[in-house]
Every structure is written in C-alpha cells, then in structure tokens.
# Entry
Amino acid sequence: MRRLVRLRCRLRCLLREERGSATAELAITLPLVLLVFGVVVGGVALAAHRVGLTSLAAEVARLEARGDAALAQSRIASFPGNPGIQRSQSGGILCVTAITSPGSGLLQAIRLTARGCAAVIESDS
# Structure
C-alpha cells in the first residue's frame, strides 16, 4: 500500500514539472510556422508576378514588332508596378526586356526581369 502511495506521489510530481510545457512548445513553434507560411506565400506571389511580367514582355514585343506601338504602350501602362522596358533589335528580331519590383516592403529589394522576342514585320507601304 505504501508503494502505491509513493508511486502516486512520484507521478503527481512528474506531472507538475511538465505543466506548461505544451504552452512553451507552442510559443516557440507558432512563430516558426507563421514564418514558413509567409515565405511560401511570398514565393507564390513572386512566381505569379514573374509569369505576368513574362507575358507582358512577350506581348509588347509582338505588338511593337507588328507596328502597334500605341497598343503596346497602353499594355505597359496597365501593368501594376510601372515596369521599366528596354528594347533591342538584332536583324529582324525585336526583343523587349521588362524590369520591375514586385510590391512594397521587403519585396521591393527584389528585381524581376523577363524578356520576350518577336520577328519584326516590315510594312510594304
């Protein structure tokens, strides 16, 4: 009987010592989980912005190659973030490079670049 009482006392002491350990573990792991979640969401946002920028560069190259500079300019103006556009032409190929920063805050330190090329269509007039 005494053994049972001692065993019960030891179990209670052990349980008292571990009180609050779940709270401490949660306090440590929750910020880490939120940090990882933020990095993943930021990465997805960067990838989506990069896809849009690549599409913009290709579309502007096609429009300017066929002579629709006004339509190309309106497409550039409608893209978020006011991207910088650089053009280069070699032979019959026009290449457009679009450069922008995605968003604000820490993301502004990142520069995204996309390039699109198209064959220049010569007008017969």
